[in-house]
Design a protein that fits this description.
single chain, alpha/beta, Spore Coat Polysaccharide Biosynthesis Protein SpsA, Chain A, two-stranded antiparallel sheet, 17 helices, 10 strands, disordered C terminus
Length: 412
């Protein structure tokens, strides 16, 4: 090894340090995920779904996925489901809800589409102790609410999140859905690890997030939630789940992530290139929220130091990821004793092997996705560049994949 690096040893030092740091962090997360255990329901719980849970669903264009999702929510036996839409969609939404369950699904409306306003409208009409926000395409297992409520046995817990996986739109998953599945596998590992290590989480995903209703009834919360501006100029409509997670941290509430098959939701993703626009929106939300957590609110540093560290790491991730190709380019332009094709082939082989190792938990469940690892590698480099682009376009607050008034599923 020393012989291979002796010619230009200084070039390999930063690359080796970065590599050691990246894989040490991954090993820590993997160990945390391995020893993590979900909270199991008890025999005589403090809360029961039929008496204590209201599901609030902000939507505007609910379709076939809503019907399947709503039936899965009803199978968990909540007291009520509140669907909040805009005024012009009220009648078709009532018709759709009545076709499923007119007794337990109630439809509310706001004058015009605004996800946060719709969410607050649902909060106002909630009468139970626990409120669960859900996307209109989030499909639950019948054990979902039992496992969510198990966490609220601890009176200090204010918010609970779940694990996620991809539901195919077609008969087979597209490459975009497989990439989304890879990302969710990595996310499930990360949130389980951070929950075990210091009890925190970067984000309780908006696809399904449960909260104590008393927290959301606070007029101070509702005002801040609806009037959330970036740089005091740009009103934010997306990023609601990030806001909710930060509110839990800044107001002394604990959170817990239920990462297990009993609390594993299915969600649809864009099955074409528009998935990239979704990722761009999620990335902008992450930049804005993490900057606030780390630099403005700063509660995260002493309450959840490991989560704070992972936030910093994500900020540096584009630079560390791009350091590899830069080093390869430098070597290819120097008089190195190995031919350029050898350098490039060795680097690509290393990348593919390491990505394979990181995705073993996913491939264990879906081995047929192994062919998509090269695409995931390309996506990672695209994501690094896109993340830098997102950093310099934080003033863009639109949804990106449809008209701004339309509600979509929220981000990682």
């Amino acid at each position: 090894m020393l012989y291979l690096t002796a010619d230009f040893f200084p070039i390999f030092v930063p690359l080796g340090v970065i590599g050691f740091y990246r894989y040490l962090l991954f090993l820590i997360k993997l160990c945390g995920w391995f020893v993590y255990r979900p909270i199991r329901p008890i025999a005589n719980p403090l809360y029961q779904a039929k008496d204590d849970v209201t599901i609030v669903v902000p939507t505007i264009d609910a379709g076939e996925e809503f019907c399947e999702a709503a039936r899965s929510w009803l199978a968990c036996n909540p007291k009520e489901i509140l669907v909040v839409t805009e005024a012009c969609m009220m009648e078709p939404m009532i018709t759709l809800a009545n076709s499923i369950d007119p007794d337990r699904i109630r439809v509310l409306s706001v004058p015009r589409a605004s996800k946060r306003v719709q969410m607050v409208e649902g909060v106002i009409h909630t009468k139970t102790d626990i409120l669960v926000f859900a996307d209109d395409d989030a499909i639950w297992p019948p054990t979902m609410l039992d496992y969510i409520l198990a966490c609220f046995e601890d009176e200090s817990v204010g918010g609970v999140g779940t694990s996620q996986t991809v539901k195919s739109i077609g008969k087979h998953q597209s490459i975009w859905e497989i990439l989304a599945g890879f990302r969710l596998t990595v996310r499930n590992i990360e949130v389980a690890a951070s929950t075990h290590i210091d009890g925190g989480v970067c984000c309780i995903s908006g696809r399904t997030g449960a909260y104590r209703t008393v927290i959301l009834k606070d007029p101070g919360f509702q005002d801040a939630f609806i009037n959330d501006y970036w740089c005091n100029r740009h009103l934010l409509n997306s990023g609601d789940d990030k806001f909710l997670t930060r509110w839990m941290v800044s107001h002394g509430w604990s959170t817990y992530m239920q990462v297990c098959k009993e609390a594993l939701l299915l969600s649809t993703f864009k099955n074409n290139w528009r998935f990239l626009k979704q990722v761009l929106r999620w990335t902008r939300n992450t930049w804005r929220s993490d900057f606030r957590s780390l630099c403005i609110e700063r509660f995260i540093w002493h309450r959840h130091p490991f989560v704070a560290y992972t936030m910093v790491d994500k900020c540096l991730n584009p630079l560390t990821l791009l350091s590899g190709p830069v080093s390869v380019l430098i070597l290819c332009n120097l008089d190195y004793h190995l031919p350029n094709w050898n350098i490039i082939a060795s680097y690509l082989a290393w990348l593919l092997i390491t990505r394979f190792v990181k995705l073993i938990p996913h491939l264990f469940k879906r081995p047929q996705d192994v062919w998509a690892i090269p695409a995931f590698l390309v996506f990672n480099f695209y994501f690094a560049i896109m993340k830098l682009y997102a950093l310099f376009t934080l003033h863009k607050t639109g949804w990106g994949t449809r008209q701004e008034a339309v509600i979509e599923e929220n981000h990682y």
